[in-house]
Design a protein that fits this description.
Length: 296
């Protein structure tokens, strides 16, 4: 009987020790888990604190292109030159050679002119904002591929702005006219891509609805390529009627250019702006005279 009691006591002590050991192990586990949770929470708080203390993102600063220039806000107007194709042959008067174009643009630069973007020109005509005393708008009609291969390098070299009025139905149609890829590249660089309608039709021979479609379709196509708002259109052949100016406004343009000779100024209707045609047959003296003496 005594032996049995001793054995029973030993079993009880063993069970008690096991229970105590399990309890100690469990307590250690719980403590370590709590310490890990505390450390994790501290890391999260540190991360949040670091995020809150991060320097605010610096937005790009808009450069004032006109800084240091004498500005005017009167109605003396702006010469708007318009070219077409740029290639060596000069086989007709609307095709000017790269060398001749370079000479003319170099003269413009050396004479102290500031080439405007279409947005800056729009601000002058529509919003009555100031521009440099000697301002000029360089434009090209139709959207030939040689505007990219021959004119674009010269514009980049001379750091000059320009606007190209493209016929949207011929975009990506062969190698004679600009492709979407080249249009996007030039637009990203800072060359303005604007509308010369969808099919280069004589607008004054179309119905109002047909004119509106020409203007809307071309505007939407260009905007889908460049991701930028199209502000202006150049009338094909300079042909327009009363419906044309109404359709231009309804299509969402703020400016439209004719082929009428003269400076563009605030006396012009914004959708009937004058320009100065440049022929490849002009001597340099004739070009200078046309640029300087064409104001109304």
């Amino acid at each position: 009987m005594r032996k049995f009691s001793n054995k029973k006591l030993q079993n009880i002590i063993l069970i008690a020790l096991i229970i105590i050991l399990v309890g100690v192990i469990f307590a250690i586990y719980i403590r370590e888990k709590e310490e890990k949770n505390i450390a994790s929470n501290e890391n999260i708080e540190d991360l949040q604190l670091n995020e809150e203390q991060e320097e605010p993102k610096i937005e790009p600063v808009e450069i004032n292109r006109f800084e240091g220039l004498t500005l005017i806000n009167d109605n003396r107007g702006v010469p708007v030159l318009y070219y077409h194709s740029v290639e060596p042959s000069e086989k007709n008067e609307v095709i000017i050679s790269p060398d001749r174009l370079r000479e003319q643009l170099q003269f413009i630069k050396d004479s102290g002119y500031t080439t405007l973007t279409i947005s800056e020109f729009n601000d002058y005509i529509i919003n009555k904002k100031s521009i440099p005393e000697k301002s000029i708008l360089i434009t090209f009609d139709d959207g030939y591929m040689d505007n990219y291969t021959n004119a674009f390098p010269i514009l980049k070299e001379l750091d000059m702005k320009a606007t190209i009025f493209v016929i949207t139905s011929v975009i990506d149609e062969g190698s004679y006219y600009l492709s979407s890829e080249r249009i996007k590249e030039m637009s990203d660089y800072g060359i303005d891509i604007e509308s010369h309608t969808a099919t280069h039709s004589h607008l004054d021979q179309l119905t109002y609805e047909e004119q509106l479609k020409e203007l809307k379709d071309s505007k939407e196509k260009i905007e889908s390529i460049t991701g930028k708002k199209v502000l202006s259109v150049a009338y094909p052949y300079g042909d327009l009627n009363e419906d044309s100016t109404k359709a231009v406004k309804e299509a969402g343009y703020s400016l439209a250019f004719t082929t009428n000779l003269g400076y563009s100024d605030r006396d012009d209707t914004p959708v009937k702006l004058d320009r100065i045609y440049v022929s490849s047959r002009y001597t340099m003296e004739r070009f200078k005279s046309r640029l300087i003496n064409t104001n109304k």
